[in-house]
Amino acid sequence: MRAVRVSVKAIIIEDDRLLVIHKRGQAGNDYYTLPGGGQKPGETLLEAVQRECLEELDIQVEAGELVFARDYIGKNHEYAGYDADLHILNLVFACRRLTGEPGWGSEPDRRQVGVDWLPLDGLDKYPFYPHEGIPAIQRWWREGKPGQPVYLGDIN
């Protein structure tokens, strides 16, 4: 197994909609993820999430509170055939858009085919990853504050 990769993700919500990266899988299946990616050496977590939003979405964000954390250990999930040796620690932050209209950034995410706004109340109807993160996102949004960060475990 490769080294654990630290990755940051952004929760950006406006008008009760979540900003997501629309991706297409190897088998042609569409799915959605939070914007974000790997932390670079010498970069703080908040700097990483700001950079990733600029690269993927062409927007500047203010990164705030940690909302939840999760592990993704590839060998334990349905895509083990593709990424059995992958282990990612995702740290998911609440963010606020400062400037720009979401679109294609200078370095779009791998497999990215678009950028979409999904309704928060119907999020569970979409192929969204991490699916088990939906309640944590919705709870944070409804309560208006992150409260205690939530460790969700090894989920997809």
Describe the structure.
17% of the residues lie in helices and 43% in strands. By secondary structure, the protein is an alpha/beta fold. The protein has a single domain, classed as Nucleoside Triphosphate Pyrophosphohydrolase. Strands 1, 2, 3, 4, 5, 6, 7, 8 and 9 form a 9-stranded mixed sheet that branches. The chain is globular and about 40 Å long. It starts with a strand and ends with a strand.
CATH topology: Nucleoside Triphosphate Pyrophosphohydrolase
Largest sheet: 9 strands, mixed
Number of helices: 3
| CATH homologous superfamily annotation | Nucleoside Triphosphate Pyrophosphohydrolase
Regions with little confidence, pLDDT below 50 for 5+ residues: none
Give the overall shape: globular
Span between N and C termini?
18 Å
Helix content: 10-25%
List descriptors.
156 residues, alpha/beta, Nucleoside Triphosphate Pyrophosphohydrolase
The gist of it:
This protein has 156 residues and is an alpha/beta fold. The chain has helices spanning 45-57, 80-83, 134-143, and strands spanning 5-14, 17-24, 30-33, 36-38, 60-73, 87-99, 112-119, 128-129, 150-154.
Q: Helix and strand layout, with pairings?
A:
Elements: E1 5-14, E2 17-24, E3 30-33, E4 36-38, H1 45-57, E5 60-73, H2 80-83, E6 87-99, E7 112-119, E8 128-129, H3 134-143, E9 150-154
Parallel strand pairs: 1-6, 3-8, 5-9
Antiparallel strand pairs: 1-2, 1-4, 2-3, 2-7, 5-6
